[in-house]
Design goal:
Blueprint (H helix, E strand, L loop, with lengths): L9 H9 L17 E10 L2 E10 L5 E2 L32
Antiparallel strand pairs: 1-2, 2-3
């Protein structure tokens, strides 16, 4: 139970705090050998700004859909520079 009595307007958050956010899904992971991480960024395609391009590209150049920011957001772009690192990386996506 969360005490919301001391908030400026408790009615506005009452529903959010009373909602059950539990997702009953099985966690999983993928191993991508020699993948490329494309940081999420804003890009203009062709004349409209899109947030969230980026994620992981496998060693054959295929975009890994599960690495997208949200379903339907994500994709490849040509990076300005590439830094090669020969170590194991755990990619968890974008955290705010």
């Amino acid at each position: 139970m969360v005490n919301i009595d001391y908030l400026y307007n408790p009615a506005t958050v009452k529903e959010a705090f009373s909602k059950d956010y539990f997702l009953n899904i099985k966690l999983n992971f993928q191993v991508i050998e020699y993948g490329t991480i494309l940081p999420h960024k804003i890009v203009k395609i062709p004349d409209k700004w899109h947030w969230g391009l980026g994620g992981i590209v496998d060693n054959k150049g295929n975009y890994v859909k599960s690495s997208s920011l949200h379903p339907g957001l994500g994709g490849t772009y040509t990076p300005e520079s590439i830094q090669h690192i020969s170590e194991t990386v755990i990619y968890l996506g974008m955290f705010l």
